[in-house]
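agent: user wants the full assembly modeled, not chains individually. Plan: 1) parse entity lines 2) check alphabet per entity 3) run joint structure prediction 4) return tokens. Steps 1-2 passed, two entities, 378 residues total. Proceeding.
--- entities ---
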Amino acid sequence: MPSPWERRSRRRILETRIFAIDHHRLVSPRTGNEHDIWVVDAVDWCNIIPLTDDDQVVMVRQRRHGTGEVTLEVPGGMVDPEDPSPLEAARREMLEETGYAADDVVSLGAISPNPAFITNRCHSFLARGVRKVAAPRLEGGEDIEVVTVPLASIPERITSGEITHALVVVAFTFALGLGGMPAPLPRLR
Amino acid sequence: MPSPWERRSRRRILETRIFAIDHHRLVSPRTGNEHDIWVVDAVDWCNIIPLTDDDQVVMVRQRRHGTGEVTLEVPGGMVDPEDPSPLEAARREMLEETGYAADDVVSLGAISPNPAFITNRCHSFLARGVRKVAAPRLEGGEDIEVVTVPLASIPERITSGEITHALVVVAFTFALGLGGMPAPLPRLR
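--- prediction returned ---
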């Protein structure tokens, strides 16, 4: 089992609204040498699959400033300090971005977006029996179109590259499981 | 379809060995207001599922400095400028981190690690019939243990939280497809 690394120093070198950057000097237990490590420190994120009673997924199209592309995603965002829990943050994001709500929200799991250099986790949820209860309420930096697509179309939208956000793929993997989509490997069951 | 945002300015505010940070001033086409956007600019990444002829996956345990945890992952890393292609980068990472090689390497797909604020893509590959041909050759900052696990155990390792890296989950989703794992949603087929 790889051993812990000793930390010689840690310095915050950038702070933004979305994340901070920390510089660490760490000592490799294997070589004894010091290494410079840069880490993105971010609060936890959440996303949620809103599913209607007739198996439609409520999704959002939005322009994303990392890649500059318009993506097809499920609602999600940062778990704010005011949110009582990741689940309540996911409910809030779903309501704000789509205007949909549900009583039945279950946890699907949590994942590390990139343990190599991002500190946080992303928590995924499934909302069943969602209904439209309000108009979307967008923040200034958001620019979102709400679309509903059949749940059965999700695997094809992932393999075709229409759904491109890794954390959205992970949420659907948690929800649908592995093994049923046309794939280069034999099915497990 | 959400419209493009006009860019008023773009400034590089940090450069590290792994990524750079750019600050953008963008104008929302919906509100006309300017927004501060921070973007992580990174080269493309790759990962690869090394599979033996008897359906064992060659994986790596390593301490990851983002989360501070020891993770169970498939080999992967940055696509270096010297790499002829993402596929050759994935072969190189597999050989360096595990000492395994294969003739038969196929592309599984590419994903955006986080289109909201990271610029790059991660390319996933599957290597079939891998054989150990060398000892692992670790870089100074790496500290890796090679382990082989049955392919059939992967879904359980994802649902149990043993495999926690989102991009590794995406690679297995591409390889195995969605729909066969015990899951809260009915299977699609």
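agent: reporting back. The first helix of chain B runs from residue 86 to 98. Helices of chain B lie at 86-98, 154-159, 166-176.
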